[in-house]
Amino acid sequence: MEVTKKEVQGESKAVKRPEIDSAIIEELMKGYQRPSDLTGPGGIMEELHKRLYERVLGAELTHYLGYEKGEAPPGPAEGQRRENYRNGSSKKTLLSEGGKLEIDIARDRTGEFEPQFIRKGQKRFGGFDTKIIAMYAQGMTVREIKRFLEEQYKVEVSSDLISAVTDSVLEDVIEWKARPLESMYPVVFFDALRVKIRDEGTVKNKAVYLALCIQRDGTKEVLGIWIDQNEGAKFWLGVMNELNHRGLKDILVAVIDGLKGFPEAISAVYPDCEIQTCIVHLIRNSLSFCSWKDRKPVAAELKNIYNAQTAEVAAKRLEDFEQGPLGKRIPAIAQCWHRVWDQVIPFFAYPNEIRKIIYTTNAIESLHMQLRKVLKTRGHFPSDEAATKLIYLVLRDITKKWKKPPISWKLAATQFAIRFGQRFFAVEI
After folding, report:
1. pLDDT score recorded for residue 76
2. What integer is the mean pLDDT of 63-90?
3. From start to end of 40-170, where are the E strands?
4. How many whole angstroms separate alpha carbon 188 and alpha carbon 37?
5. Confidence of residue 357 (pLDDT cuts 50, 70, 90)
6. How many whole angstroms separate alpha carbon 309 and alpha carbon 321?
7. How far is it, in rounded angstroms, from Cα 44 to Cα 12?
8. How many whole angstroms separate alpha carbon 142 and alpha carbon 76?
9. What's CA 202's distance to the chain center, in Å?
10. At what angle do helices 128-137 and 159-167 cross, to 10 degrees?
């Protein structure tokens, strides 16, 4: 049978909630003249919240017990003990955006009733936890959050409660770090931030490593966070095995920053992966040996090297630079390039579309810049878990905006498909 438009409109009108009578609002407003009378402590909004919460909790108990308040509870069957029944109420203080709110919670005799609207043991309501986590994600310390809540909401919250709220994020972090991955990523950037973390009684400068991938559709994703003080082949082999266990079976191109033991660890798990030293990191390392006066001419010389059409031409230009006046005055630069030349060579075999994806590191640099804005407000972290927790929250906010691939991705994807063939299209079943 065909449903007419009028019937649909009639049905929607039938379930439409009635508007609140303006006379009721006028009655509620009697005696309230200042804004604080409405929204301040003891104001009408607080009283309305209290009444509504108590009404909902009472309705839940009524549904559970099967009889209304004021009615006699059903008697027990013959030969059986009396069934559960109402047993007064108990007071409960909630922390919400409006401050502290004391309500009466209806109780049952046996204590078996489990309310859903406000659960047993729940002390925070109305997005209170969300606000604390949002402030923590902006880099505010527990002490700063505590002071803000006292000044803004007139709520005295203990440091332990704030820590408990932020620690609840650790469960999300564990789940996020163990989530399944795609079977293949065209490009994965591995890069590090230096963060001060207390360890064994002293503050140490630890490396926080991130893996940022370009997915098959060109969009970005952070695969994980790892913290380790002494990076080496053993540490990186563990990272690669973790990614493999989570479902990542193939990486087409891995872009790294020349860490010791890293290429060997990648090749042990992903033998077909092409390992590429990050050109931007290589240039930065080279310029660190220069005075301010020499930076611009050195950068121009290095650009001629990585813009070469072939590896042979690039090697010749590196040799010319090494024998030239700048190379002789700053020999450490050429030595830096020679040490990682085996990981630079693959770059020259790529077409321009893939080269731009690899050396245009705006994605990873932008990510690090946004992380540093938050991390620099913290002197140091008390533990690895505290650092991981904050970095995860900041990443969660940043990656919400990652919805579209770069404009040039279609051309790059075509080149990936031609160069890597079936590996680019392979799907793990």
Report:
1. 62
2. 70
3. 86-96, 99-108
4. 58
5. confident
6. 17
7. 32
8. 53
9. 28
10. 80
The mean pLDDT value for 232-240 works out to 83
Distance (Å, rounded) from C-alpha 23 to C-alpha 39?
A: 20
pLDDT band at 12 (very low <50, low <70, confident <90, very high): very low
Query: What does the block give as tokens for 300?
Result: 């121009």
Q: What are the pLDDT digits (tens) for 172-198? A: 888 999 999 999 999 998 888 888 888
d(CA 419, CA 312): 20
Q: What's the CA gap between 314 and 97, in Å, rounded?
A: 62
**Nearest one of 318, 323, 294 to 307, comparing CA atoms:** 318
Structure tokens at 262: 């890293």
Identify the band that residue 89 occupies on the pLDDT scale cut at 50, 70 and 90. confident
pTM value surpassing 0.85: no
Q: How many CB atoms lie within 10 A of CB 408?
A: 14
Which pLDDT score is estimated for 230?
A: 62
Complete DSSP assignment for 311-338: HHHHHHHHHHHHHSHHHHH-HHHHHHHH
Give 38's contacts (C-beta < 8 A, 6+ positions apart): 32, 44, 45
* pLDDT, average across residues 336-363: 79
**How far is CA 256 from each of CA 22, 190, 289, 348, 429, rounded to the nearest angstrom?**
67, 5, 21, 16, 29
Q: Which two tokens stand for residue 294?
A: 């020499």
C-alpha to C-alpha distance for 58 and 42, rounded to whole angstroms: 22
Contact criterion met (CB below 8 Å) for 308 and 317: yes
